[in-house]
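HUMAN:
Just now I want nothing more than another pair of eyes on a protein record. I would be glad if you read both lines and explained how they fit together. I have put the entry right below:
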Amino acid sequence: DADGARVFADDTRLHLDGGCFGAACPQPGAFGQVRGAATFDGIDDIITVPDTSTLRLRTFSIGLWVRPTEIRSGRQTLVNRGGYSEASSQDANDENRNYYIGIEPMSMTLRFLAGQTPYVFPGAPDPGKPEACATLAPLFNLTTTKKLNLKQWNHVMGTFDGRIARLYVNGSLA
């Protein structure tokens, strides 16, 4: 997309274009590892893709190229679907369909959350009812020991087969 773009085109067969608003827009036009890339500030830049059933995955592989330029004090979300951010709630009907990959604060390690399971408050009157669930906790919450390379392109791949989650950094199981 051209400089100043507010829409980021998806050139896959799904055409799930993303968008951004105002100061939270990343800068388009950077040279990526494979093609063009967007440059994110690591603080509040975001591209949002509208929710669709196509993104509600029970099994998946999600890959991305990332080139971190500095270590940040806050968590840096790389990809998030389904409310793993602290500010949003999760939908009890989206069991096993959520995922998150992000860079952990003050490090170049990654966190990968996949799937979800209801967390029921102890002593809930009817634990079988969705309203008894305070939140949906990730089935898998992985943190890598392998670090991303600073100021270099890194390939990150998260996989989830509905039972096991795995995270790869630069081709190695992390």
Remarks:
- The two ends are 33 Å apart (CA to CA).
